[in-house]
Amino acid sequence: MVGIVLVSHSKQIAEGTAELVLQMAGEVEISPVGGDADGTFGTDPERIEAAIRDLEVDEVLVFMDLGSAVLSAETVLEMLSPDEREKVTLVDAPFVEGAFAAGVTASTGADAEECVEAAMEARTEPKLQEG
Amino acid sequence: MEDTQATLDVIREMAAAMEENRRQLTKLDSEIGDGDHGNNMNRGFQAALERLENADLATPADVLKAVSMALISKVGGAAGPLYGTAFLRASSALGDTEEVSAEDAAEALEAALGGIKQRGKAEVGDKTIVDALQPAVEAAREAADGGSVAGVLRAAAGAAEEGAEATVPIRARRGRASYLGARSEGHQDPGATSTYMLLDAAARALEGSS
């Protein structure tokens, strides 16, 4: 099974995105990590690490919003043991759309690779029809 | 054990420097960033001191690793993962070395720079920590030949100071300041400045003890 960790500078964005994904995907393991250790805007490597470890899944996809969310997630990855690291993929995709596509795909029992592919497609999917 | 104690002295001096300069760093950061760099660095180094009190420290690398973990979890923003990675890489570079030579110190600084460049994907001229740390590493390498650890750190601090000052006219290309475009010109980069202050503190700690 594939689980998702959502890393945002904002608690509300992380939690709201998780709610949105759960609403559509139903059965999917998803863990929002928003804000820094003081509860203000930022990211918190310690909680990101805990979220990755606590998900009871075979593979973990991590979605990140702005700047330091990526730095924090990459740093956490370096802190994990090689066995743990192998299970984790940082996904280079839009935060809301990517997590949404991956979550829905994961709920069908797809593996991490298929979920990442779905998330990456969200980057190029046009929102407005041309012409 | 002696060098483990010296490493602890270095960290204590760094923490004191961050406490003393937090307003100045925060002021620089409010000009081109989100205005929290000084407070964040101070909080991180205070957390590092706490962690060091309760840690089992056998080697200089153990000290640097404990500091790394505190900075990663407590500094916040981009600076936490960046400085945390720097200390983590420096710790790995020292390995189980008990007596740190001038060459070891220069290598640890070089490893720290490698970590920051990899994590932040920045180069010299982007108006970041790298603008201070890269010239610092070059100066450290030159000073390592026949020099002392204190000499290496003093050379590094001197080059970092010049590097930090040279960020003033640059337009930021990485981090939050890059969103400001031309408006980031004319301000000294807070990250490059804190790098200079940390190296200066490190040199001071060792000069005092020798």
Describe the structure.
The complex is a heterodimer of chains A (131) and B (210). Chain A has helices at residues 11-25, 45-54, 67-79, 82-86, 95-107, 112-124, and strands at 2-8, 29-34, 59-64, 88-91. Chain A is of the alpha/beta class and 131 residues long. Chain A has a single domain, classed as Rossmann fold (3-Layer(aba) Sandwich). Chain B has helices at residues 2-20, 22-32, 37-53, 60-74, 79-94, 102-120, 130-144, 149-165, 190-209. Chain B is mainly alpha-helical and 210 residues long. Chain B has nine helices and no strands. Chain B has one domain (2-209): Serine Threonine Protein Phosphatase 5, Tetratricopeptide repeat, CATH 1.25.40. Chain A binds chain B through residues 36-38, 42-46, 67-68, 71-72, 74-75, 78-79, and chain B through 72-74, 76-78, 80-82, 84-85, 88, 119-120, 175-176.
Fold blueprint:
The complex is a heterodimer of chains A (131) and B (210).
Chain A lengths: L1 E7 L2 H15 L3 E6 L10 H10 L4 E6 L2 H13 L2 H5 L1 E4 L3 H13 L4 H13 L7
Parallel strand pairs in A: 1-2, 1-3, 3-4
Chain B lengths: L1 H19 L1 H11 L4 H17 L6 H15 L4 H16 L7 H19 L9 H15 L4 H17 L24 H20 L1
Can you identify the CATH class of chain B?
Mainly Alpha
Count of alpha and pi helical runs of chain A: 6
- Structural class call of chain B reads mainly alpha
What share of the residues of chain B lie within helices?
over 70%
What's the CATH architecture of chain B?
Alpha Horseshoe
Overall geometry of chain B comes to globular
The domain count of chain A comes to: 1
Could you name the CATH homologous superfamily of chain B? Answer: DhaL domain
The average pLDDT of chain B is 93
What is the count of structural domains of chain B?
1
> How many strands in all of chain A?
4
Order of strands in the sheet with the most strands of chain A?
2-1-3-4
The total count of helices of chain B amounts to 9
Class derived from helix and strand content of chain A: alpha/beta
pLDDT average of chain A, as an integer? 92
Report the radius of gyration of chain B as a whole number of Å.
16 Å
- For the report, how would you describe the main beta sheet of chain A? 4 strands, parallel
Strand residue percentage of chain B? under 5%
Helix-strand pattern of chain A? EHEHEHHEHH
**Multimer state:** heterodimer
